[in-house]
Specification:
Blueprint (H helix, E strand, L loop, with lengths): L9 H11 L3 H10 L4 H18 L7 E8 L5 E9 L2 H4 L2 H17 L11 H15 L6 H19 L5 E2 L2 E5 H12 L4 E9 L4
Antiparallel strand pairs: 1-2, 2-5, 3-4
Helix pairs in contact: 1-2, 1-3, 2-3, 3-8, 5-8, 6-7
Length: 203
């Protein structure tokens, strides 16, 4: 990878930090590695923080906050539990803002589970049956049909699973990307433990 250190200004570093919330040194390095390309620098930081977060996946995260969101019409409310390893991280503005953003997202996007593995097996099988019926009449090999079914199932997860859904405020990244980014920045495991969504007159 070509590293270009010239032309990286303090203003560029500050702009990238405002966009990502990353540390000054991380922003500077990302801009140098990307040759000053802001979009590429953002992507580098996202990959870097995701890798850091994956390394912490098995750590216990017993601290955190419960955030409540009430829609302006008073007819939709959500609760989200966002966990961290320490109170120190849980009390940072970035952590609390993420909890608020996820609570807002749940109100808008109506997820049915936090993770793909949390989706009930009977729901997954029901979707598979529907997709198999849809491709049954297509004149394609069974292996190809099965790939189409799995592709449809992946789309189902992206539409219905919280961490797989595109974030309502920025559909270029998922809710899972946001969680991993904060974990990478804080140096702690950050995870959504659970959520609840209430709608007036709903089930």
């Amino acid at each position: 990878m070509t590293t270009k250190t010239t032309g990286i200004t303090a203003q560029m570093v500050a702009e990238l930090r405002n966009k990502t919330g990353a540390g000054m040194m991380d922003c500077k390095k990302a801009l140098e590695e990307s040759g000053g390309d802001m979009a590429k620098a953002e992507e580098l930081l996202r990959v870097k923080y995701a890798a850091r977060a994956d390394k912490r996946a098995d750590r216990p995260a017993g601290q955190g906050v419960i955030e409540i969101y009430l829609h302006f019409n008073g007819k939709v409310a959500t609760m989200v539990e966002l966990n961290s390893e320490t109170d120190f991280v849980a009390n940072t503005p970035e952590f609390r803002q993420l909890a608020k953003d996820i609570a807002l997202h749940v109100a808008s996007a109506r997820p049915i589970a936090v993770r793909t593995e949390d989706v009930p097996a009977e729901v997954v099988e029901r979707e598979r049956r529907v997709y198999r019926a849809q491709v049954a009449e297509e004149k394609k090999p069974d292996a190809v049909k099965e790939k189409i079914v799995e592709g449809k199932l992946k789309k189902f997860y992206q539409e219905n699973v919280l961490l797989e859904q595109p974030f309502v405020k920025d559909d270029k990244q998922t809710v899972g990307d946001l969680v991993k980014a904060l974990s990478g920045k804080t140096g702690e495991k950050v995870e959504v433990r659970r959520f609840a969504r209430f709608e007036l007159g709903g089930n």
